[in-house]
Amino acid sequence: MKIAMLGFGNIGAGFYNEIKSGYKDIEIVKALVRDIKKTRAIEADKLTLDYNDILNNPEITAVVDVTAGEASVKLIIDALNASKSVITANKMAVALAGAEFIDIAREKGVNFYFEAAVGGGIPVINLFNENVRPHRIDKVIGILNGTTNYILTKMSDGGLEFDQALKLAQDKGFAEPDPSFDLTGRDSAYKITILKDLLFDYKCGAEDIFCQGIDRISKTDLDYAASINYRIKLVGYIQNFSSGIDIGVRPVFLPAAHPLAQVNNEYNAVYIEGAPIGEIMLYGRGAGAGPTAASLIGDLLRIKRDGSRGFNVAYARGVVKKSSMPPEMKTQSNYFRFNVLDVPGVISKITTIFEKYNISISSMKQDISNANEPAAVIFTTHESKSSKIPSMIEEIKRNKFIINEPVWYKIGI
Ligand SMILES: NC(=O)c1ccc[n+]([C@@H]2O[C@H](COP(=O)([O-])OP(=O)(O)OC[C@H]3O[C@@H](n4cnc5c(N)ncnc54)[C@H](OP(=O)(O)O)[C@@H]3O)[C@@H](O)[C@H]2O)c1
Fold first, then answer.
1. Ligand 1 pocket: which of 49, 53, 66 to mutate (most atoms <8 Å of CB)?
2. Of the candidates 266, 275, 278, 198, which has an alpha carbon nearest to the alpha carbon of residue 238?
């Protein structure tokens, strides 16, 4: 089987090595890159800047896309239109146009797979398509980003502050030099949107869903969670209620005994609840060249084995049609942290505003502080309407004693 690669970065190099060392009957004949002068672990004559070298080569039957960014969408469409099967690791491309890719593949009699796009080496996608989707699924919660999980673990167990934990993640190669895509939750948003599209006919993109990152989290939050026997994890979630789908990305307080609360460091996991399937949890390395190459190779071998007989059933008809859960129906318990100047009347002003918005306080904790110095005030609340929180925070922020952006996280999921 002759194949081509699109991109040759970190994942590309890992994939190339695995194929070269273990799969004598698969030959990588070309790799498309942007910069031909960069030194890469592949024979220089295989590199090309001209996509036509791949598209017009009839011997190439499949293309493995390991590029980063949105340009991948057009590259994939062009390959499928040239009757090449495509495998991609690019979550952004799949979240943006996965269903369109499958439609073109179907029309051209080729195939399109994307196991590596979510969960790195964990076989999430094909398992969702084959074993999960036929059942009623009530809940999917995923720790889908290794960088943020590593940072949260080092803050809660290693005693590090956010900046120290981020630096460690960068030194170890888990975090990008610009980590904002991970920290703001955008990376997880793309991945949870893909999982939603596999299970439900409910149209919304990664940019449309609720997305709260860990960029403002502090050790105070993690220590407080530990003191009440919880752990904070950044999760992507899909909850299937009779009133509609609730989907998003957010840091949540998980009870320490929850299976996801035990998932630490750079590991990822996806937890599923449904009927009659019960509970499932998939766990493993969600990133890195080795695990991601394993998923790409799994898809490639499927194409090699099945030819035009098998077909990716993702986005097939028959997925459950759903609408969005009305915002006014969403309720949650919360954790709030306000950094305030310790001046008289702060607590009563904040609690009066909570009362006005009908958000009932279940506990309050204030650091010991000196007058006129900053202090953290923490509140937890009973279950109350989520839709009221943003306006309540805006009103609290209008007080001069609030010294930076308040932090609030959901308790439980
Ligand atoms: N890193 C992980 O652990 C992981 C896990 C799962 C999935 N993924 C996904 O795998 C993909 C690759 O990740 P990576 O970490 O290998 O990224 P990377 O090291 O930045 O490599 C990206 C490659 O894509 C090439 N490229 C980008 N735009 C291109 C274009 N328009 N035409 C041709 N080549 C283009 C770059 O070419 P130049 O070298 O010439 O600039 C580079 O070789 C991404 O989509 C990522 O989301 C990564």
1. 66
2. 198
Task: Count CA atoms closer than 13 A to 237's CA, side-chain side.
Answer: 23
Provide the residue range defining the domain that includes 24. 2-113
> In terms of domains, do 278 and 349 share one?
no
Task: Check if 48 has its Cβ closer than 6 Å to any atom of ligand 1.
Answer: no
Pocket lining: 178 vs ligand 1, CB cutoff 6 Å? no
Q: How far is the CA of 145 from the centre of ligand 1 (A)?
A: 17
User: Tens of pLDDT along 249-298?
Assistant: 999 999 999 999 999 999 999 999 999 999 999 999 998 999 999 999 99
**Is 188 found in the same domain as 81?**
no
pLDDT at 178: 84
Same domain, 91 and 140: no
Q: How far apart are CA 137 and CA 135, in angstroms?
A: 6
**Atom number in ligand 1 closest to CA 120:** 6
Residue 306 lies in a domain: no
Residue 120 Cβ < 6 Å to ligand 1? yes
Residue range 159-181, pLDDT digits in tens: 999 999 999 999 988 887 789 99
Q: Is 77 exposed, middle or buried (0-12, 13-18, 19+ CB in 10 A)?
A: middle
CATH number, domain containing residue 32: 3.40.50.720
Q: What total of structural domains would you count in the chain?
A: 3
Say what the pTM is. Answer: 0.94
